[in-house]
Amino acid sequence: MPAPTIQELTSPSTWALIEDKFSPFAKETLEKLIHFVHNECVPAEKIYRAQIPTDPAKRWTTVIPIMVELKEKAKKLGLWNLFLSKAHYPDVGVPLTNLEYAVMAEIMGRTGHLASEATNCAAPDTGNMEVFARYGTPEQKKKWLVPLMAGEIRSAFSMTEKGVASSDATNIRTSIRKEGDEIVINGHKWWISGAGDCRTRVHLVMGRSDPSAPKYLQQSIVIVPSDAPGVKVIRPMKVFGFDDAPEGHCEVIYDNVRVPASNIIAGWGKGFEVIQGRLGPGRIHHCMRSIGLAQRALDMMLERVTDPNRVTFGKQLYEHGTIVADIATSRAEIESSRLLVLSAAHQIDRFKAKGALKEIGIAKFVVPLMAGRVFDRAIQSFGAEGISQDTPLAAWWAGVRTLRFADGPDEVHIQQIGQRELKRVPRLKELTAETKEKEEALWKRTGTVKSHL
Ligand SMILES: Cc1cc2nc3c(=O)[nH]c(=O)nc-3n(C[C@H](O)[C@H](O)[C@H](O)COP(=O)(O)OP(=O)(O)OC[C@H]3O[C@@H](n4cnc5c(N)ncnc54)[C@H](O)[C@@H]3O)c2cc1C
Questions:
Q1: Which of 98, 125, 274, 435 could cross-link 345 (Cys pair, CB 3.0–4.6 Å)?
Q2: Where is each Acyl-CoA dehydrogenase/oxidase N-terminal domain found (predicted)?
Q3: What pLDDT score was predicted for residue 419?
Q4: Ligand 1 contacts CB of residue 167 (under 6 A)
Protein backbone atom coordinates (compact mmCIF):
# COMPACT_ATOMS: atom_id res chain seq x y z
CA MET A 1 0.00 0.00 0.00
CA PRO A 2 1.40 3.48 -0.83
CA ALA A 3 2.48 5.74 2.05
CA PRO A 4 -0.06 8.38 3.09
CA THR A 5 0.00 11.67 1.22
CA ILE A 6 0.81 15.02 2.78
CA GLN A 7 -2.85 15.97 2.32
CA GLU A 8 -3.93 12.93 4.34
CA LEU A 9 -1.37 13.58 7.06
CA THR A 10 -2.09 17.30 7.40
CA SER A 11 -5.06 18.68 5.49
CA PRO A 12 -5.81 19.32 1.81
CA SER A 13 -6.70 22.97 2.41
CA THR A 14 -3.54 23.75 4.37
CA TRP A 15 -1.38 22.05 1.77
CA ALA A 16 -3.13 24.01 -1.00
CA LEU A 17 -2.28 27.21 0.89
CA ILE A 18 1.43 26.50 1.19
CA GLU A 19 2.31 24.16 -1.67
CA ASP A 20 3.59 26.92 -3.95
CA LYS A 21 5.97 28.07 -1.21
CA PHE A 22 7.74 24.70 -1.33
CA SER A 23 10.85 24.40 -3.52
CA PRO A 24 11.29 21.25 -5.65
CA PHE A 25 14.01 20.16 -3.16
CA ALA A 26 11.62 20.65 -0.22
CA LYS A 27 8.87 18.66 -1.95
CA GLU A 28 11.23 15.81 -2.72
CA THR A 29 12.59 15.83 0.86
CA LEU A 30 9.08 15.89 2.30
CA GLU A 31 8.08 12.88 0.26
CA LYS A 32 11.17 10.96 1.35
CA LEU A 33 10.48 11.93 4.95
CA ILE A 34 6.87 10.72 4.81
CA HIS A 35 8.10 7.36 3.51
CA PHE A 36 10.82 7.16 6.14
CA VAL A 37 8.47 7.99 9.02
CA HIS A 38 5.69 5.72 7.77
CA ASN A 39 7.80 2.73 6.72
CA GLU A 40 10.73 2.86 9.15
CA CYS A 41 9.96 4.93 12.26
CA VAL A 42 6.36 4.07 13.10
CA PRO A 43 7.00 0.29 12.87
CA ALA A 44 10.09 0.77 15.10
CA GLU A 45 8.31 2.58 17.94
CA LYS A 46 7.55 -0.44 20.12
CA ILE A 47 10.94 -2.00 19.42
CA TYR A 48 12.65 1.23 20.49
CA ARG A 49 10.78 1.19 23.79
CA ALA A 50 11.51 -2.50 24.30
CA GLN A 51 15.24 -1.99 23.66
CA ILE A 52 15.60 0.54 26.50
CA PRO A 53 16.94 -1.66 29.32
CA THR A 54 14.90 -1.84 32.52
CA ASP A 55 18.02 -2.90 34.45
CA PRO A 56 19.14 0.32 36.24
CA ALA A 57 22.80 -0.54 35.58
CA LYS A 58 22.25 -0.56 31.82
CA ARG A 59 19.38 1.91 31.41
CA TRP A 60 21.65 4.95 31.09
CA THR A 61 24.64 3.29 29.44
CA THR A 62 23.01 1.66 26.42
CA VAL A 63 22.86 3.09 22.92
CA ILE A 64 19.54 1.86 21.55
CA PRO A 65 20.33 -0.38 18.53
CA ILE A 66 17.21 0.44 16.49
CA MET A 67 18.00 4.15 16.80
CA VAL A 68 21.51 3.57 15.42
CA GLU A 69 19.95 1.77 12.46
CA LEU A 70 17.35 4.49 11.85
CA LYS A 71 20.02 7.22 11.99
CA GLU A 72 22.11 5.45 9.37
CA LYS A 73 19.08 5.10 7.08
CA ALA A 74 18.04 8.74 7.52
CA LYS A 75 21.56 9.99 6.82
CA LYS A 76 21.79 7.93 3.63
CA LEU A 77 18.47 9.36 2.47
CA GLY A 78 19.65 12.93 3.08
CA LEU A 79 17.07 13.35 5.84
CA TRP A 80 19.56 14.97 8.15
CA ASN A 81 19.83 18.26 10.11
CA LEU A 82 16.72 19.54 8.32
CA PHE A 83 16.10 22.12 11.09
CA LEU A 84 19.23 24.09 10.22
CA SER A 85 18.00 26.53 7.59
CA LYS A 86 20.53 27.80 5.05
CA ALA A 87 18.81 31.19 5.23
CA HIS A 88 20.15 31.61 8.77
CA TYR A 89 23.31 29.46 8.55
CA PRO A 90 24.61 29.81 4.97
CA ASP A 91 27.80 27.79 5.53
CA VAL A 92 26.31 24.73 7.27
CA GLY A 93 22.55 24.90 6.71
CA VAL A 94 20.16 22.86 4.57
CA PRO A 95 18.25 24.63 1.77
CA LEU A 96 14.90 24.61 3.55
CA THR A 97 12.84 27.50 4.87
CA ASN A 98 11.29 27.43 8.33
CA LEU A 99 7.89 27.01 6.70
CA GLU A 100 9.09 23.95 4.79
CA TYR A 101 10.72 22.57 7.93
CA ALA A 102 7.54 23.21 9.98
CA VAL A 103 5.61 20.75 7.83
CA MET A 104 8.45 18.22 8.03
CA ALA A 105 8.67 18.61 11.81
CA GLU A 106 4.96 17.86 12.05
CA ILE A 107 5.52 14.62 10.12
CA MET A 108 8.46 13.71 12.39
CA GLY A 109 6.41 14.61 15.44
CA ARG A 110 3.93 11.85 14.67
CA THR A 111 6.40 9.44 16.31
CA GLY A 112 7.10 11.52 19.41
CA HIS A 113 10.82 12.13 19.41
CA LEU A 114 11.82 9.02 17.42
CA ALA A 115 11.97 10.45 13.88
CA SER A 116 13.41 13.76 15.12
CA GLU A 117 16.30 11.99 16.76
CA ALA A 118 16.77 9.62 13.81
CA THR A 119 17.14 12.64 11.50
CA ASN A 120 19.40 14.56 13.93
CA CYS A 121 16.67 17.11 14.49
CA ALA A 122 16.07 16.50 18.22
CA ALA A 123 16.20 18.94 21.10
CA PRO A 124 18.33 19.96 22.91
CA ASP A 125 20.96 19.26 20.21
CA THR A 126 19.13 21.43 17.66
CA GLY A 127 19.35 24.56 19.82
CA ASN A 128 22.91 23.75 20.85
CA MET A 129 24.00 23.26 17.24
CA GLU A 130 22.46 26.65 16.44
CA VAL A 131 24.50 28.19 19.27
CA PHE A 132 27.75 26.68 17.95
CA ALA A 133 26.88 27.58 14.35
CA ARG A 134 26.03 31.18 15.23
CA TYR A 135 28.46 32.04 18.03
CA GLY A 136 31.18 29.36 17.98
CA THR A 137 34.82 30.11 17.18
CA PRO A 138 36.37 27.98 14.39
CA GLU A 139 37.98 25.75 17.06
CA GLN A 140 34.70 25.36 19.00
CA LYS A 141 32.87 24.49 15.78
CA LYS A 142 35.48 21.91 14.83
CA LYS A 143 35.45 20.27 18.25
CA TRP A 144 31.69 20.31 18.98
CA LEU A 145 29.55 21.39 16.02
CA VAL A 146 31.09 18.94 13.54
CA PRO A 147 30.43 15.79 15.64
CA LEU A 148 27.00 17.08 16.69
CA MET A 149 26.04 17.65 13.07
CA ALA A 150 27.34 14.20 12.20
CA GLY A 151 25.14 12.75 14.96
CA GLU A 152 28.18 11.18 16.64
CA ILE A 153 27.62 12.87 20.01
CA ARG A 154 24.75 14.49 21.90
CA SER A 155 24.60 17.57 24.15
CA ALA A 156 22.79 19.34 26.98
CA PHE A 157 21.80 22.92 27.71
CA SER A 158 22.17 23.65 31.39
CA MET A 159 20.34 26.65 32.77
CA THR A 160 17.54 25.79 35.23
CA GLU A 161 18.59 25.69 38.90
CA LYS A 162 17.26 23.91 41.93
CA GLY A 163 15.79 26.30 44.48
CA VAL A 164 15.83 29.25 42.06
CA ALA A 165 12.91 30.60 39.99
CA SER A 166 14.63 29.95 36.71
CA SER A 167 11.91 31.18 34.38
CA ASP A 168 13.51 34.55 35.08
CA ALA A 169 17.06 33.79 33.95
CA THR A 170 18.44 36.85 35.77
CA ASN A 171 17.99 34.73 38.94
CA ILE A 172 20.60 32.16 37.86
CA ARG A 173 23.20 31.73 40.63
CA THR A 174 25.76 29.29 39.19
CA SER A 175 29.12 30.98 39.47
CA ILE A 176 31.39 31.28 36.46
CA ARG A 177 34.72 32.99 37.13
CA LYS A 178 38.02 33.33 35.37
CA GLU A 179 41.13 32.11 37.13
CA GLY A 180 44.28 32.54 35.06
CA ASP A 181 43.83 30.63 31.81
CA GLU A 182 40.85 28.72 33.17
CA ILE A 183 37.15 29.17 33.92
CA VAL A 184 35.87 27.73 37.19
CA ILE A 185 32.19 26.70 37.41
CA ASN A 186 30.19 25.99 40.57
CA GLY A 187 26.45 25.43 40.54
CA HIS A 188 23.46 23.17 41.08
CA LYS A 189 21.19 22.61 38.08
CA TRP A 190 18.24 20.34 37.41
CA TRP A 191 15.93 19.28 34.59
CA ILE A 192 18.91 19.22 32.22
CA SER A 193 17.65 17.26 29.21
CA GLY A 194 20.14 14.84 27.73
CA ALA A 195 22.51 14.95 30.71
CA GLY A 196 21.76 11.29 31.46
CA ASP A 197 22.52 10.13 27.92
CA CYS A 198 25.72 8.12 27.53
CA ARG A 199 26.24 9.78 24.13
CA THR A 200 26.23 13.31 25.60
CA ARG A 201 29.72 14.76 25.49
CA VAL A 202 29.12 18.45 26.10
CA HIS A 203 27.03 20.77 28.29
CA LEU A 204 26.47 24.45 27.55
CA VAL A 205 26.28 25.91 31.06
CA MET A 206 24.74 29.29 31.81
CA GLY A 207 25.95 31.04 34.95
CA ARG A 208 26.60 34.39 36.52
CA SER A 209 30.02 35.76 35.65
CA ASP A 210 29.79 39.40 36.80
CA PRO A 211 27.20 40.28 39.49
CA SER A 212 28.25 43.96 39.29
CA ALA A 213 27.44 44.31 35.57
CA PRO A 214 24.07 45.62 34.24
CA LYS A 215 21.25 43.08 34.79
CA TYR A 216 21.38 41.42 31.36
CA LEU A 217 25.17 41.41 31.04
CA GLN A 218 25.91 39.48 34.23
CA GLN A 219 25.55 36.03 32.63
CA SER A 220 27.85 33.98 30.44
CA ILE A 221 27.68 30.56 28.79
CA VAL A 222 30.56 28.11 28.99
CA ILE A 223 31.30 24.88 27.14
CA VAL A 224 31.74 22.07 29.67
CA PRO A 225 32.78 18.59 28.47
CA SER A 226 30.49 16.11 30.22
CA ASP A 227 33.50 14.13 31.47
CA ALA A 228 35.26 17.16 33.04
CA PRO A 229 36.21 16.48 36.67
CA GLY A 230 33.50 17.90 38.97
CA VAL A 231 30.53 17.31 36.62
CA LYS A 232 28.23 15.17 38.76
CA VAL A 233 25.00 13.84 37.27
CA ILE A 234 22.98 13.15 40.42
CA ARG A 235 19.73 11.60 39.16
CA PRO A 236 17.19 11.70 36.35
CA MET A 237 14.08 13.69 37.31
CA LYS A 238 10.78 11.98 36.59
CA VAL A 239 7.95 13.51 34.55
CA PHE A 240 4.74 12.06 36.07
CA GLY A 241 6.78 8.90 36.71
CA PHE A 242 8.49 8.72 33.29
CA ASP A 243 12.28 9.05 33.43
CA ASP A 244 12.58 9.61 29.66
CA ALA A 245 15.59 7.28 29.34
CA PRO A 246 17.97 7.16 27.58
CA GLU A 247 18.23 10.99 27.53
CA GLY A 248 16.73 11.94 30.90
CA HIS A 249 16.22 15.37 32.45
CA CYS A 250 18.84 15.33 35.17
CA GLU A 251 19.91 17.03 38.33
CA VAL A 252 23.56 18.04 37.82
CA ILE A 253 26.12 19.57 40.16
CA TYR A 254 29.12 21.45 38.75
CA ASP A 255 31.64 21.21 41.56
CA ASN A 256 34.73 23.35 40.92
CA VAL A 257 34.70 22.34 37.26
CA ARG A 258 37.67 23.80 35.39
CA VAL A 259 37.75 24.36 31.63
CA PRO A 260 40.07 26.44 29.41
CA ALA A 261 39.24 30.17 29.15
CA SER A 262 38.66 29.65 25.41
CA ASN A 263 35.47 27.68 26.29
CA ILE A 264 33.43 30.87 26.71
CA ILE A 265 30.64 31.23 24.14
CA ALA A 266 30.42 34.56 22.27
CA GLY A 267 32.38 36.41 25.00
CA TRP A 268 31.89 37.34 28.66
CA GLY A 269 28.50 38.75 29.59
CA LYS A 270 26.81 37.46 26.42
CA GLY A 271 24.67 34.77 28.11
CA PHE A 272 21.35 36.52 27.55
CA GLU A 273 22.11 37.37 23.97
CA VAL A 274 22.97 33.71 23.29
CA ILE A 275 19.87 32.22 24.98
CA GLN A 276 17.67 34.59 23.03
CA GLY A 277 19.37 33.62 19.76
CA ARG A 278 19.17 29.94 20.73
CA LEU A 279 15.46 29.95 21.28
CA GLY A 280 14.33 31.74 18.15
CA PRO A 281 12.96 29.29 15.61
CA GLY A 282 13.60 26.47 18.12
CA ARG A 283 10.79 27.70 20.34
CA ILE A 284 8.26 26.52 17.80
CA HIS A 285 9.96 23.27 16.79
CA HIS A 286 8.22 21.64 19.78
CA CYS A 287 4.93 23.16 18.59
CA MET A 288 5.37 21.74 15.10
CA ARG A 289 6.06 18.27 16.44
CA SER A 290 3.18 18.48 18.95
CA ILE A 291 0.74 19.05 16.10
CA GLY A 292 1.91 15.84 14.42
CA LEU A 293 1.48 13.93 17.65
CA ALA A 294 -1.96 15.45 18.28
CA GLN A 295 -2.99 14.39 14.77
CA ARG A 296 -1.73 10.88 15.49
CA ALA A 297 -3.73 10.75 18.75
CA LEU A 298 -6.84 11.79 16.84
CA ASP A 299 -6.16 9.04 14.28
CA MET A 300 -5.88 6.50 17.10
CA MET A 301 -9.09 7.79 18.65
CA LEU A 302 -10.93 7.38 15.33
CA GLU A 303 -9.87 3.75 15.06
CA ARG A 304 -10.77 3.05 18.65
CA VAL A 305 -14.27 4.52 18.61
CA THR A 306 -15.14 2.68 15.40
CA ASP A 307 -13.94 -0.70 16.75
CA PRO A 308 -17.06 -2.93 16.36
CA ASN A 309 -16.34 -4.53 19.75
CA ARG A 310 -16.86 -1.21 21.52
CA VAL A 311 -20.59 -1.07 22.02
CA THR A 312 -22.09 0.73 25.04
CA PHE A 313 -25.79 1.19 25.80
CA GLY A 314 -26.75 -0.21 22.44
CA LYS A 315 -24.54 2.02 20.33
CA GLN A 316 -21.01 1.91 19.00
CA LEU A 317 -18.82 4.51 20.65
CA TYR A 318 -18.74 6.78 17.62
CA GLU A 319 -22.54 6.91 17.61
CA HIS A 320 -22.59 8.81 20.89
CA GLY A 321 -22.89 12.55 20.26
CA THR A 322 -20.29 13.58 22.83
CA ILE A 323 -17.68 11.40 21.13
CA VAL A 324 -18.42 12.87 17.70
CA ALA A 325 -18.16 16.33 19.27
CA ASP A 326 -14.79 15.41 20.81
CA ILE A 327 -13.55 14.27 17.39
CA ALA A 328 -14.77 17.44 15.68
CA THR A 329 -13.30 19.71 18.36
CA SER A 330 -9.93 17.96 18.15
CA ARG A 331 -9.91 18.25 14.39
CA ALA A 332 -10.80 21.95 14.54
CA GLU A 333 -8.15 22.69 17.16
CA ILE A 334 -5.42 20.85 15.26
CA GLU A 335 -6.27 22.68 12.02
CA SER A 336 -6.22 26.11 13.65
CA SER A 337 -3.00 25.43 15.58
CA ARG A 338 -1.31 24.23 12.42
CA LEU A 339 -2.16 27.46 10.63
CA LEU A 340 -0.83 29.41 13.60
CA VAL A 341 2.47 27.56 13.56
CA LEU A 342 2.85 27.81 9.81
CA SER A 343 2.22 31.55 9.94
CA ALA A 344 4.87 31.86 12.69
CA ALA A 345 7.34 29.85 10.61
CA HIS A 346 6.62 32.00 7.54
CA GLN A 347 7.08 35.15 9.60
CA ILE A 348 10.49 33.86 10.79
CA ASP A 349 11.45 33.31 7.15
CA ARG A 350 10.49 36.87 6.28
CA PHE A 351 11.72 38.79 9.32
CA LYS A 352 13.94 36.35 11.30
CA ALA A 353 12.95 35.28 14.82
CA LYS A 354 13.16 38.87 16.12
CA GLY A 355 10.46 39.98 13.71
CA ALA A 356 8.24 37.03 14.59
CA LEU A 357 8.17 37.31 18.39
CA LYS A 358 4.40 37.76 18.53
CA GLU A 359 3.67 34.73 16.35
CA ILE A 360 6.26 32.56 18.14
CA GLY A 361 4.94 33.64 21.57
CA ILE A 362 1.32 32.85 20.71
CA ALA A 363 2.17 29.46 19.20
CA LYS A 364 4.37 28.65 22.22
CA PHE A 365 1.45 28.73 24.65
CA VAL A 366 -1.49 27.85 22.39
CA VAL A 367 -0.16 24.65 20.78
CA PRO A 368 0.91 22.61 23.85
CA LEU A 369 -2.42 23.42 25.51
CA MET A 370 -4.24 22.32 22.38
CA ALA A 371 -2.25 19.09 22.08
CA GLY A 372 -2.89 18.35 25.77
CA ARG A 373 -6.63 18.64 25.21
CA VAL A 374 -6.50 16.39 22.13
CA PHE A 375 -4.52 13.73 24.03
CA ASP A 376 -6.94 14.01 26.92
CA ARG A 377 -9.94 13.34 24.64
CA ALA A 378 -8.13 10.44 22.98
CA ILE A 379 -7.26 8.98 26.40
CA GLN A 380 -10.90 9.29 27.45
CA SER A 381 -12.05 7.40 24.36
CA PHE A 382 -9.69 4.52 25.23
CA GLY A 383 -11.14 4.15 28.73
CA ALA A 384 -8.68 2.93 31.37
CA GLU A 385 -6.38 1.58 28.68
CA GLY A 386 -5.71 5.18 27.67
CA ILE A 387 -3.80 5.96 30.85
CA SER A 388 -1.93 2.64 30.88
CA GLN A 389 1.41 1.53 29.50
CA ASP A 390 -0.37 -0.30 26.67
CA THR A 391 -0.84 2.83 24.54
CA PRO A 392 1.63 5.71 24.11
CA LEU A 393 -1.10 8.26 24.94
CA ALA A 394 -0.19 8.70 28.62
CA ALA A 395 3.48 9.31 27.81
CA TRP A 396 2.50 11.78 25.07
CA TRP A 397 0.20 13.62 27.46
CA ALA A 398 2.96 13.81 30.10
CA GLY A 399 5.46 14.99 27.50
CA VAL A 400 3.28 17.75 26.14
CA ARG A 401 2.40 18.93 29.64
CA THR A 402 6.09 19.68 30.21
CA LEU A 403 6.11 22.01 27.20
CA ARG A 404 4.08 24.43 29.27
CA PHE A 405 7.29 25.00 31.30
CA ALA A 406 10.12 24.06 28.97
CA ASP A 407 11.69 27.04 27.16
CA GLY A 408 9.81 29.33 29.55
CA PRO A 409 6.40 28.90 31.22
CA ASP A 410 3.16 29.85 29.48
CA GLU A 411 2.57 32.85 31.71
CA VAL A 412 5.77 34.58 30.58
CA HIS A 413 4.67 34.34 26.94
CA ILE A 414 1.09 35.27 27.78
CA GLN A 415 2.30 38.35 29.64
CA GLN A 416 4.47 39.44 26.72
CA ILE A 417 1.64 38.97 24.22
CA GLY A 418 -0.75 40.88 26.49
CA GLN A 419 1.69 43.76 26.83
CA ARG A 420 2.25 43.82 23.10
CA GLU A 421 -1.52 44.01 22.55
CA LEU A 422 -1.83 46.91 24.99
CA LYS A 423 0.66 48.88 22.89
CA ARG A 424 -2.01 49.02 20.17
CA VAL A 425 -4.31 51.10 22.38
CA PRO A 426 -3.20 54.64 21.30
CA ARG A 427 -3.74 53.77 17.63
CA LEU A 428 -7.11 52.13 18.40
CA LYS A 429 -8.19 55.27 20.26
CA GLU A 430 -7.18 57.47 17.33
CA LEU A 431 -9.21 55.32 14.94
CA THR A 432 -12.23 55.32 17.27
CA ALA A 433 -12.07 59.13 17.58
CA GLU A 434 -11.93 59.41 13.79
CA THR A 435 -14.95 57.10 13.44
CA LYS A 436 -16.83 59.20 16.01
CA GLU A 437 -16.15 62.36 14.01
CA LYS A 438 -17.44 60.71 10.84
CA GLU A 439 -20.47 59.44 12.75
CA GLU A 440 -21.27 62.94 14.05
CA ALA A 441 -21.00 64.34 10.53
CA LEU A 442 -23.36 61.63 9.32
CA TRP A 443 -25.90 62.45 12.06
CA LYS A 444 -25.81 66.07 10.98
CA ARG A 445 -26.04 65.42 7.25
CA THR A 446 -28.92 62.92 7.49
CA GLY A 447 -30.75 64.87 10.23
CA THR A 448 -31.57 61.56 12.02
CA VAL A 449 -32.88 62.07 15.55
CA LYS A 450 -30.55 60.34 18.05
CA SER A 451 -33.23 59.58 20.66
CA HIS A 452 -34.87 57.09 18.31
CA LEU A 453 -31.99 54.66 18.84
C1 LIG B 1 10.80 17.87 30.74
C2 LIG B 1 11.55 19.12 31.02
C3 LIG B 1 12.74 19.36 30.35
C4 LIG B 1 13.50 20.49 30.62
N5 LIG B 1 14.71 20.66 30.01
C6 LIG B 1 15.52 21.68 30.40
C7 LIG B 1 16.85 21.77 29.88
O8 LIG B 1 17.28 20.97 29.04
N9 LIG B 1 17.66 22.76 30.34
C10 LIG B 1 17.23 23.67 31.27
O11 LIG B 1 18.00 24.55 31.63
N12 LIG B 1 15.95 23.60 31.77
C13 LIG B 1 15.11 22.63 31.37
N14 LIG B 1 13.83 22.52 31.90
C15 LIG B 1 13.40 23.47 32.91
C16 LIG B 1 12.42 24.51 32.41
O17 LIG B 1 13.01 25.33 31.43
C18 LIG B 1 11.97 25.30 33.65
O19 LIG B 1 11.21 24.41 34.44
C20 LIG B 1 11.18 26.53 33.30
O21 LIG B 1 12.00 27.52 32.70
C22 LIG B 1 10.53 27.14 34.56
O23 LIG B 1 11.48 27.40 35.56
P24 LIG B 1 11.23 26.85 37.04
O25 LIG B 1 10.92 25.40 36.97
O26 LIG B 1 12.40 27.25 37.88
O27 LIG B 1 9.90 27.56 37.53
P28 LIG B 1 9.79 28.96 38.29
O29 LIG B 1 10.65 29.98 37.66
O30 LIG B 1 9.94 28.70 39.75
O31 LIG B 1 8.29 29.34 37.97
C32 LIG B 1 7.19 28.66 38.61
C33 LIG B 1 5.90 29.11 38.00
O34 LIG B 1 5.72 30.49 38.21
C35 LIG B 1 4.86 31.00 37.22
N36 LIG B 1 5.45 32.19 36.60
C37 LIG B 1 6.73 32.42 36.27
N38 LIG B 1 6.87 33.63 35.68
C39 LIG B 1 5.64 34.18 35.65
C40 LIG B 1 5.10 35.40 35.16
N41 LIG B 1 5.88 36.30 34.54
N42 LIG B 1 3.77 35.62 35.31
C43 LIG B 1 2.97 34.72 35.90
N44 LIG B 1 3.42 33.54 36.37
C45 LIG B 1 4.73 33.27 36.24
C46 LIG B 1 4.69 29.91 36.16
O47 LIG B 1 3.43 29.27 36.36
C48 LIG B 1 5.80 28.96 36.49
O49 LIG B 1 5.51 27.64 36.08
C50 LIG B 1 13.03 21.43 31.59
C51 LIG B 1 11.80 21.21 32.23
C52 LIG B 1 11.07 20.08 31.96
C53 LIG B 1 9.78 19.86 32.70
A1: 98
A2: 64-152
A3: 97
A4: yes
